């Protein structure tokens, strides 16, 4: 046995000739490399994810995971050309994007009614921590896919929330040479160039490389809010034999945007078209870097050892201003507060795994034991002041702001150690998954008032057990019904700015039943799930009146329940049609909370959401061979503007589209050259959306043209 298995899926797909052209009507045996448990790499056929290590940390078919799981495959990324992580996950079930309107600063979103911004983003199966405004930015061009595991998942992963986790999978070296360059131009003077090259270092040694890079100079729909980025991601793989592999993954990026992108809310709470910030005092620059490795070695026919690790750091330096009320003397002026902050987050994560595959009589076991550690240090310098008022008669004018000194300094150190054990048991058609984990967390927070040098130190120690049990049955015709129970425990980095106290850990539990069906005669995966989640001590953003004025900060509330239904279909057929479709019903209820909110729904969580993206490539027999078109629609039902449930956000449907042409269809000398145009929010619908009592506007239409050449 070796550490890499070759899995054969016999599906009627278009075969390829030596030039890579598809031959209609041919059936080929597709070889899909299964990469052990490293990184959660997705094994996919077009839009249809078949397996990954995200659900179990061992390479497991999706239909055998006793929890709702789905994926955004590499082909979906190519067809939709997403520019942000929010665009990337927009068509996945239960995922609520856009609750904070247009805002390129952060990738904030929720799933199943729970925010996943801080606890639900993983990179290559390792936790990617966040605190305060220190959130790692994601460049979609650096991804080869996303695996989504919905619901509490701490039995394997430790610090995760109730909604689940989104595992972002970094591009890895390929054993076959691959080269790509792209030029892009889009709305708001968006200029971008990017490249991706990979293959063996030479013809003799078992060394492989990949280098992905991007440069972007772009404005946005909001004045003084650019979307500039430099991104470079080197990767290296050493595979001396079939039993051993070492992959090194690196990244550096620099992103420049605005300190705020919000619009002013008038005294009645309505969003206006006035930019709330100060164009002369609205810079935000974030530098981030990471370096990590994935090591795998098969010891014998039973045991495989893996060690995955990553060190990462980010620094964000930002100035901001915020208009919050009419001036008492001159109503044509709007008073603005101002501030500046400098944050740094460093994190180290390591996960050690030992997997054993063996039999006990008629029962097959895949046993996984692991020990992981996360160490993070977060430092925040923060200062508050005032900005000259916003002149509504000249709203785009900037106004000089004197330098603002830092008022407070916060340093937080957190250690988390977790040990886990999982057994995937197979008896005939029955699939039983048992998992348990115990975490120890130590958090020390130092708050310093820089005006007096007064120091306050808070120490917090937490520990908890998390578990999962799931049972499935694979019928003779391929349908797999399942039921599961899982829990989550998540320490929270950062502090409550209202109380100057660290956050308590968030805990959750879920019951889920569902069914999965991978059609044997079609490259189609159908799934359905019913869930019930209870969470306590959850974090949300709310507008709070601080001594320096109102601010949209993280707060911690009592207990929330979420119940719902998810339906999803993915297919890629041999006639050129690929499709993803989903529907989600989510009913959230605040069981314990502030006065006037108990029994209400969580703000900005629609009860009904649906999405459909279809892509069609004309076949060689067509007179328009080489042409491909895509069209998508995303429905968001009504939701409440605040937890008080006194007003509602209206429902809306947003449309996306794509068209592309492969010039190789004209003449083989143009092989590899293609042109693609993608449009998001095609009809430029920019309605108000309110969350936690503050209102924003939907991001407007974006159109991006891409000229791509591969060889």
TrEMBL record:
Domain TonB-dependent receptor plug, first and last residues per copy: 64-164
InterPro entries: Beta-barrel_TonB, Beta-barrel_TonB_sf, Plug_dom, Plug_dom_sf, TonB-dep_rcpt-like, TonB_sidphr_rcpt
Record keywords, A-Z: Cell outer membrane, Ion transport, Iron, Iron transport, Membrane, Receptor, Signal, TonB box, Transmembrane, Transmembrane beta strand, Transport
Gene Ontology biological process terms from the UniProt entry: siderophore transport
This protein's record includes keyword Membrane: yes
CDD domains: ligand_gated_channel (cd01347)
Domain TonB-dependent receptor-like beta-barrel: 240-682
GO MF, one example: signaling receptor activity
Subcellular location: Cell outer membrane
KW Glycoprotein (keyword) present: no
Topology class, membrane: Multi-pass membrane protein
A Pfam family annotated for this UniProt entry: Plug
Record's GO cellular component terms: cell outer membrane
Protein family membership: Belongs to the TonB-dependent receptor family.
PANTHER family: FERRICHROME IRON RECEPTOR-RELATED, FERRICHROME OUTER MEMBRANE TRANSPORTER_PHAGE RECEPTOR
The protein's name: Ferrioxamine B receptor protein
Species of provenance: Rhizobium grahamii CCGE 502
Lineage: Bacteria, Pseudomonadati, Pseudomonadota, Alphaproteobacteria, Hyphomicrobiales
